[in-house]
Automatic annotation (TrEMBL):
It is found in: Cell membrane. It comes from the Bacteria. The keyword Zinc-finger does not apply. The chain crosses the membrane at residues 39-59, 65-83, 103-123, 143-165, 177-196, 216-238, 259-278, 298-318, 350-370, 376-400, 421-441, 447-466. Keywords: Amino-acid transport, Cell membrane, Membrane, Transmembrane, Transmembrane helix, Transport. InterPro entries: AA-permease/SLC12A_dom, Amino_acid_permease_CS. Its main location: membrane. Belongs to the amino acid-polyamine-organocation (APC) superfamily. Amino acid transporter (AAT) (TC 2.A.3.1) family. This is L-asparagine transporter. The keyword Cell cycle does not apply. Pfam families: AA_permease. It is a multi-pass membrane protein.
């Protein structure tokens, strides 16, 4: 926190040093070790966007999707290094809204905190609904039953302890990583040894011989950017763990520095291998590229394996949503920008009320999604993308402003400076602007840009009301 005194969430006040506000005074337990932080960072970059969404993107862009993931991956690296610089300056839980509050203003912190909370609630709705759908692959049970069971289990895990959350996320991430590495090795074996049904036709020439590397032109590639960026959403989650990491100033830089090779292996590497074994023309929007590749290889168990992995990815995302929403609501409450009851912690140091409130909304969302399916899923995903990218925008702007102040000597220099900043941050902001423009051009995602102003108006009205009711609250005063 930027203030000298904060509510500890249990009826008291305690002093906090500005340079170490979050870890010292938030009341959380430092229970996340290096092993768990590393896998949370890895798992955050691997979700259903890769396992399912890539099929639609391949149909739109062909092999040039590889380039889209590579360039977007570079942008994500710039964002994560910008976040890393801020985290080493001041590691706090609820970091995005904290930094926005400090370097832009109280309203920016308010908007960022509530928007990131909404992002995870919306994402949780889509993911738990998807997980329920994946269960029908094996069992003939109503989707709402599976959704209810998954939500209750993940809710319980997040209330027991942060260590249990970290352990569950570790194994979720391990499944995803193992699946992708396994696919890469199988494809490499087919290309070099020629085994399986795909052995006779597999060739790296598929990357350019079937209509060229850009079969639908540059525009086709640009139109996939929203899908590509959605796949990377949640990579910033490692920043939310700062207040509960055992050694944030050692662990977090190591986790952030793994971003380039994670993207190179899990996205670029996996797509190169898959598209070399299976021509891009054989993929369809509604089919996972992993399932299509397994079928082409003649591996009958492929569909079941991929379904299990995608189920794991969905549950991992929902688990992360449960974790982050409670922390973000508590950060807002501690700053007087949310109801005080959200400050309450359990004995194990988890935000009880915030997590409960978010989980309840996820269940309501599941019911709504069940009642009105159709295009609702596409619209929700689009809104999740635009709200998730808001956190990235705030990270970049805050890093630029922090660097300016640090270079002047007003603030201490971070021990983990972002390379190429501020130019790398400006480039990342420009890239995000291009993605937003592409979302406006695509009729399927345009609705999210209509919803964003409505959400902004709601936040603006709420902020004015809160400020009028609490005129003495320092949380509404400019820094």
């Amino acid at each position: 926190m930027t203030s000298a005194q904060v509510d500890n969430g249990q009826g008291g006040r305690q002093a906090v040093e500005v340079a170490d506000a979050g870890p010292a005074g938030e009341g959380y337990q430092r229970a996340l070790g290096a092993r768990q932080i590393q896998m949370i960072a890895i798992g955050g970059a691997i979700g259903t966007g890769l396992f399912l969404g890539a099929g639609k993107a391949i149909a739109k862009a062909g092999p040039s999707l590889i380039l889209a993931y590579a360039v977007a991956g570079l942008v994500i690296f710039f964002i994560m290094r910008a976040l890393g610089e801020l985290l080493m300056y001041r590691p706090v839980s609820g970091s995005f809204s904290e930094y926005a509050r400090e370097f832009i203003g109280p309203f920016a912190g308010f908007v960022t905190g509530w928007t990131y909370w909404l992002f995870w609630v919306v994402t949780g709705i889509t993911e738990v609904t998807a997980a329920a759908q994946y269960m029908t692959f094996w069992f003939s049970i109503p989707q709402w039953v599976s959704a209810l069971i998954f939500t209750i289990i993940l809710y319980g895990v997040n209330l027991i302890s942060v260590k249990l959350f970290g352990e569950l996320e570790f194994w979720f991430s391990m499944v995803k990583v193992t699946a992708i590495i396994g696919m890469i090795l199988i494809c490499a074996g087919i290309l070099t040894l020629g085994f399986s049904d795909a052995g006779d036709t597999a060739s790296v020439t598929h990357l350019w011989s079937d209509g060229g590397f850009f079969p639908h032109g540059i525009k086709g590639t640009l139109m996939t950017l929203q899908i590509v960026m959605f796949a990377f959403l949640a990579v910033e989650l490692v920043g939310v763990t700062a207040g509960e990491s055992k050694d944030p100033k050692t662990v977090l830089p190591k986790a952030i520095n793994t971003v380039p090779w994670r993207i190179a292996v899990f996205y670029v590497g996996a797509l190169i291998m898959i598209l070399s074994v299976v021509p891009w023309t054989e993929f369809s929007p509604g089919v996972s590229p992993f399932v299509a590749a397994f079928e082409k290889m003649g591996l009958g168990l492929g569909a079941g394996i991929v379904n299990f992995v995608v189920l794991t990815a969905a549950l991992s995302s929902c688990n992360s949503g449960m974790y982050s929403t409670g922390r973000m609501l508590r950060d807002l409450a501690l700053n007087g920008q949310g109801p005080k009851l959200f400050t309450r912690l359990t004995r194990s140091g988890t935000p009880l009320v915030g997590t409960t409130f978010s989980a309840a909304l996820m269940l309501v969302g599941v019911w709504v999604n069940y009642q009105w399916p159709g295009d609702a899923f596409t619209y929700v995903v689009s809104f999740a993308t635009i709200s998730g990218m808001w956190a990235w925008i705030m990270i970049l702007i805050c890093q630029i402003r922090y660097r300016r102040l640090a270079d002047r000597g007003t603030l201490p220099q971070s021990a983990f400076r972002a390379p190429g900043a501020p130019y790398s941050s400006v480039f990342a902001l420009a890239f995000i602007a291009v993605v937003v423009v592409m979302m406006g051009i695509d009729k399927d995602t345009r609705i999210s840009l209509y919803c964003a102003p409505l959400w902004a108006a709601l936040l603006g009205i709420s902020y004015v009301v809160l400020k009028a009711r609490n005129p003495e609250n320092k949380a509404f005063a400019k820094n």
